[in-house]
Amino acid sequence: MPMAFSTHKQHQHLPNLYGATAAPPPTPSAQPNHHTVTSSVAADELSNLLHRLPPTLSLPKRRSSTSATSPPPPTLSFSDPNFNHLLLSSGSELGFLQLTNHDIPSQLANSAETESLSLFELTRDQKESCFPKNWPLGFDADDDDEEEEDGDGKGESFCFDTECSTETTTDLSLTSLREFTRALEKLGLKIIDKLADAMGFDNSIGEDPTRFRSLMWISEGLHGDHDKPSGGFYPYVIGLQYQIRCQKYSLLKDSGSVSVSPQVDSIMVTLGDIAQVWSNGKLSKVRGRPMACLGDGNKSRLVSMSLLVTLPCNSRVTPLLPEVVGEEGTGDEDDESQVCGSKEEQEKRLFNSFSFEDYAWRVYNECYLFNDPLDRYRI
Which of 226, 259, 271, 324 has a CB 3.0–4.6 Å from the CB of 95, allowing a cystine? Predict the structure, then answer.
């Protein structure tokens, strides 16, 4: 039985690293000519100093506070005969890609977005009473942000399973969102199957459909919002996000933040922390869901719909290593080399096994902008 948890979150606020420094006011001088002479002498001394600098020495540049911009995401299509190889290559180097020539129509994505926006038009009481409260499902709000009277506050999110069900009978229709969620889930499981085949370990999606769990995470942002994602982080295998319009997204990597701009009507695929553990560290990962890069000024509304293919709460996470068959096995069931190969052939595990539920709760409630939550499980 899943553990019952409180949805109280621990918020961590980052200090302002770039405080404004005011220049000292000018000092009045009773000798105007003295000020002119002093400035002229100082300029001459500075000019002489710069001329004495070595030619290879340059003055330091101002540090930029913006995140690094990565090249466009690599583009993959299921029709490509080398899809598995390209998927593994992109996953190992970057941890994200954009998928084209998929079978999800843009009309369905737009209808799902319209229904998602209607969720934020509900009053606060409706948001809290109409949706299931079974963590992480349901409505969630950042209580540190002041709630506006019309209920359209910042830091709000909704999390649904594939049914996109409500607790009470309302006039709210989520038919398109439900169909959109199921279509993304089907595509996500297909990608996991391809990735498992490329990695060389067994994947039993067809034999055990309960092995995975899909969550549709919907959040709304306004221009000028802070960078912390609403709803917190949640571990996942892969994430899928349909690119409805030209929009830049920020991805949090272990090396820092990068921004990407997928093609319109493509699906951005990100590999999560569970995929990295399963691959025994071979795959790169993106921490959390992609965040829309919101500029200042225009107060337009924006909703993000992220489908996370993740695990049931009662799962255990451990590296999935390919089986190595010994060349000199006798065929006897007791012959260890027949099943696992020699010690030299076996791959060393880089992660300890851990409870997914404990890990998910910790990641959801703590801020991991700088520290990798997987570090505590590394061997």
Answer: 271
